[in-house]
Design the sequence.
C-alpha cells in the first residue's frame, strides 16, 4: 500500500505505539529488496506501508514473522485507539484502488445530490434531461415524478428541481460508470474495446453503496456478454 501525503505527515510525529496501532489494522504484504552490489534478495513484511520486522532470507520467513506480529499487536490492550477519520488517515481510498485495479469498469461522473442547490451542475441537468421511465429504477422516483423532473428542465424551471429532490429525500450519490463491451472470448481469455462501451447511471445513499451496485451491475453485464459471444460461436 502506498501512503498518501496526510498519512506520511502524520507518521512523522506519531509515537511508536500510534504507528503500531495504525499498522496493525492493515493486511500483511511482503516486499522484496535487492542489494544492487551483491544481487542478494531479501524479503520484508509490511502492513499499511509500514515495515514491521526487518529483512528475511525467504518470503516464508517474512510472512511467518508478519502474521505473528500482527496477531500479537491486535491483542495488545495497551495500544491507543486511533480515530482515523478525525485524523484524516483512513486507508479507504487505497483499499478501493486495490480493489478496482482488477475491475472491468471505471467511474466517469460522480454527483453528490446533497452538495447541489437551486443552480444544478450541468451533469445533473443533463442526466435529468435525458431521463425516461427506465430511469425511475436508477433514481428512486415514480415514473410520473421522473417525467415531471425532465419537463422542468425542458420548461426552464430548473430552480424547482432541487426542492423536489429534497422533498423526496434524495441526498445521495449519482454515479456514471463505463464498461467496455466484450467483443470475443471467454471469461478466461477475452477481448474488449473501450471504443464500444456500456454506460450506466446508479444511485445510492452512500458512495460506497454506489460502488457496490456498480460491481454487481458490471458482473451481470460481463456474464451477458460472455453468454452472447458463446451463442454466436455456436451459431
Sequence:
Amino acid at each position: 500500500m502506498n501512503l498518501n501525503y496526510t498519512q506520511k505527515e502524520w507518521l512523522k510525529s506519531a509515537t511508536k505505539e500510534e504507528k503500531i496501532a495504525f499498522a496493525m489494522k492493515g493486511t500483511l504484504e511482503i516486499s522484496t529488496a535487492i542489494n544492487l552490489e551483491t544481487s542478494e534478495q531479501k524479503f520484508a513484511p509490511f502492513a499499511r506501508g509500514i515495515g514491521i520486522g526487518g529483512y528475511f532470507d525467504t518470503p516464508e520467513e517474512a510472512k511467518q514473522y508478519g502474521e505473528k506480529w500482527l496477531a500479537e499487536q491486535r491483542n495488545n490492550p495497551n495500544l491507543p485507539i486511533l480515530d482515523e477519520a478525525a485524523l484524516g488517515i483512513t486507508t479507504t481510498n487505497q483499499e478501493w484502488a486495490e480493489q478496482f485495479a482488477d475491475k472491468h469498469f471505471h467511474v466517469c461522473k460522480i454527483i453528490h445530490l446533497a452538495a447541489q442547490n437551486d443552480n444544478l451542475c450541468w451533469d445533473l441537468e443533463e442526466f435529468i434531461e435525458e431521463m425516461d421511465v427506465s430511469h425511475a429504477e436508477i433514481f428512486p422516483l415514480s415514473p410520473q415524478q421522473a417525467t415531471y423532473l425532465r419537463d422542468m428542465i425542458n420548461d426552464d424551471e430548473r430552480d424547482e428541481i432541487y426542492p423536489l429532490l429534497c422533498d423526496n429525500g434524495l441526498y445521495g450519490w449519482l454515479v456514471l460508470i463505463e464498461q467496455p463491451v466484450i467483443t470475443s472470448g471467454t471469461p478466461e481469455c477475452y477481448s474488449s474495446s473501450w471504443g464500444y462501451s456500456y454506460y450506466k447511471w446508479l444511485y445510492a445513499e452512500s458512495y460506497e453503496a454506489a460502488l457496490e451496485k456498480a460491481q454487481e451491475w458490471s458482473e451481470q453485464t460481463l456474464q451477458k456478454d460472455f453468454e452472447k459471444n458463446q451463442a454466436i460461436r455456436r451459431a
